[in-house]
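Data availability (excerpt). The following record was deposited with the supplementary files.
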Amino acid sequence: MKSFDKLQLINNLVLKNAPLIKDIGLMNGKTGISIYLFHFSKIMDERIYKEHAETLIEDVYQEVENNMVPPDFGNGLAGIVWGIDHLERNGFLEANPDEIFADPDDRIFRFITNQSEISLELERGLLGYGFYLLARLRGKDLENVKGRDYLLKRLLIDIINQIYELIEEKEHMLLEPAAFKLTWVLPLTLIFLAEVMYLNVYRRKISRILDRLSYVVLSSIPIRHSYRLYLATGMEMVLKYEDLPRWKEHLHVLKSNFDPDKLLSEFPDKSLTLTEGLSGICPIIRVSNNICNKNRLLNQISDKINKSLFWNELKTRERFMSSHMGLSKGISGIGHAFVVFQEVSSQ
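Predicted structure:
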């Protein structure tokens, strides 16, 4: 069975089951599934997938307007806003973010300001709200913001301050997880800080956070080669904006001790999902400059995914839950890996 056959299997299941899913969020619901379908429709020039994606987004808009949706990034408003912004920036949707996100902004602002403590993680924590705010502030003149944009900028600064405090208090959260997780806090924090530096916001405090992170970063040579690549990618993004000689040295160590073949061996045969499986390596490879031959590694990943026994199980599975469809731990995320293969190979 070739990649196209597997994509057909994924798409048939997604088109059949996605409209029935109640979850509208980014990681497990309709927002994330629509992102996959929009990207797939573009590379295959198939309008039917774009139409289904647009229908899912309409469902998301209606649900947000009519019901109380949680504020978090994983399954709530922050992730939905980030997803809509992603689709708008990539030309899939025409939207005025300041109009459609006014109410979600207010709900998220009230939630964050009323919490005594929020964790550092992506799905329900500060990093997720941070990425949401970066999406909302992207393209704005942040030196002269007023009104709503001023409040969003102040909230971003408050989140940066909270991250500064949590890094010292919750250092264990930065450590390498036992199994691969795309949600590993340390490289995600580095990526977030790099994006903040790109916007040129609160640079002095960012430098202090990087100083606090130095002990963990410089003492880390992850056991897993997938994590070596991930950490090196986060460090590389930071070094675009901050001159850190010891970080450059350590980045060289990580790159010198990275083995793509060992990375492939770290994933069991049916471990294919985006946030906890082999598909999660694809978005890292896309932005990384730490690999001599990206296409070779992507082809090896594609080959391993294609040969997995997962596909035999998928064809015979009778019952599907919403999580089986989603971007994070479902088949949309695996489909998105095939989209990355195509996009990178065509560059």
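Summary of structural features: The chain has 18 helices and no strands.
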